[in-house]
Design goal:
The protein is of the alpha+beta class. Helix content is about 40%, strand content about 15%. It has a single domain (about 1-95), classed as Aspartate Aminotransferase, domain 1, CATH 3.90.1150.10. α1 packs parallel to α3.
Amino acid sequence: MVHEYARRRDELCCALDSIPGFELSVPEGALYVWADIAATGLSGAQVAESLLDVAGIAVVPGEAFGPEYVNHIRLTYAPSDAVVSAACRALAAWRPR
C-alpha cells in the first residue's frame, strides 16, 4: 500500500502542479496534500466551491483548519486509484475563475 499511496500522491501532485497559482506542500507521511492557492487571488473556500461546481471535486478549504490556512485547500489521495485518477483528470481541465 505504501507504493500505491506514493503513486497516487505523485499523480495528484502532478495534476495540482499544472494549475497556475497553486503551490504544493508534498507530504512525506500523510494521505493528503496542501495546496497554497494565494496566487489565484481566491480564498480556499472560493476555490473549493469552484472545484465542486465546475469539476465535481470535493476538497476541504483551509479555513476549516484555522485562519492561517485561508489561502489553502487540502486534498486527499486515500480513495481508490480510479477516484484519484478521475479527480486528476478533472483538475487538469479546471482553472481558477
